[in-house]
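Hi there. Long-time user, first ticket. I'm pasting a complex I've been working with (about 498 residues overall). I'd like to know whether the download I got is complete or cut off, because the file seemed smaller than I expected. Thanks.
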Amino acid sequence: MLETIFNHRSIRKYKSSPVSDEILDKVLQAGSRASTTGNMQVYSVIITKDEDLRKQLWEAHFKQDMVLQAPVHMTFCADFNRFTKWCKQRKSVPGYGNFLSFFTAAIDALLVSQNVALAAEAHGLGICYLGTATYMADRIVEILELPELVVPVTCIVMGYPDEQPGLTDRLPMNSIKHEEKYKEYLPEDIDMIYKEREESSLTKELLAINKKETLAQIFTDNRYTEKDNIYFSERFIDTIKKQGFFGNS
Amino acid sequence: MLETIFNHRSIRKYKSSPVSDEILDKVLQAGSRASTTGNMQVYSVIITKDEDLRKQLWEAHFKQDMVLQAPVHMTFCADFNRFTKWCKQRKSVPGYGNFLSFFTAAIDALLVSQNVALAAEAHGLGICYLGTATYMADRIVEILELPELVVPVTCIVMGYPDEQPGLTDRLPMNSIKHEEKYKEYLPEDIDMIYKEREESSLTKELLAINKKETLAQIFTDNRYTEKDNIYFSERFIDTIKKQGFFGNS
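Hi, the file is complete. Here it is re-exported in full:
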């Protein structure tokens, strides 16, 4: 268990070998063992292997190579559709078209995704999470024909790794851990937290390539800009609304 | 790995024995190996052991016994505070006070929580997720003194189990799995999906205790009512706004 967790790396190059349905079923079964609110299981997982559909998804995910390359694309959805249909068929009046229910279902879906990721790795597969899932939720809704009360919250690609990347660095553990209450960061804490990362050779390379003075500027000016964040915030909120989760029920 | 996943059950009774800092550190280290957007690690974990604080948290979590009983309470927060402070100290202009950034950070925090849950279980500990974390996010913000750009998205309690509950049932795997695209549920699909659960002796017991005709009614009328959902939706959205995540930056 712990070995799998500590060996995790995102895989961005895949062999073309397919993943058997048997393994996919085991992996998904592991997903379904995650904690779920009130045992409602308000999530769905869509497993896409079809080439044409994966090409459409690749376009949605900013045309990242690995999305075309990996034989399996999984979409983890917050899903109150199935549960709501059940309620309606059982003389009860569901009330899940609201933000709290969306977020509850999103939590369910995300815990499933992490179990799936770890189970896949335990079976020798590689995975990579796609942050573009929320950016392009509206396109994913169209491509995968998601009905009302279903919203994609994350995607992963999966397949047999064709690379062996090193472990990614992490901030010192004390910087993410707070004892008893939240401990606000002082300027010198911030300096200490980011010191190792900022002084790494990787950062020096990135600064040269991007012609920036600080690593933070690469994030704010290139990778995760305010303009993009605002644009995709509105788009994501619109999608959640359109899927019926921002109503008054 | 897989054994831990398949053995997971939520633990609601705990021994009073404390959890050592050494184990907590290992567990948290496992958490930090989860995938994180752009390796930004936009989350924080607050570990609360203090009795008085845990009593306040217990009150926030609808006074569920296990919150008082378990020696450790962990709060997983979407956190763009640390990252934003870093940007500001490094001549860059952060733009993370928006919904997309909140959700990105929430994903980060939730993947960490699932790694932590599994790592804890691999160390012989028991855990239980607290759905009340989003319902009562505003109170948790107050109790744990969370600053701007920090929002709790889930909590777990942790300790040595004082019960051995059986595995919880799950819906048939085909009901949560969709091949290629989303397959909409027909009325007969819904009947089939919920058949086993509805016919179980546990359900019959619940129907008798709650004096309801269908299991769905127990969810819609008692456990997760429309009225509560709407009330707590507004409260949660207000908290996200108050913490600065619904602005235009």
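A couple of notes from our side: Strands of chain B lie at 43-48, 72-79, 126-130, 150-159, 177-179. The CA atoms of residues 94 and 134 of chain B lie 26 Å apart.
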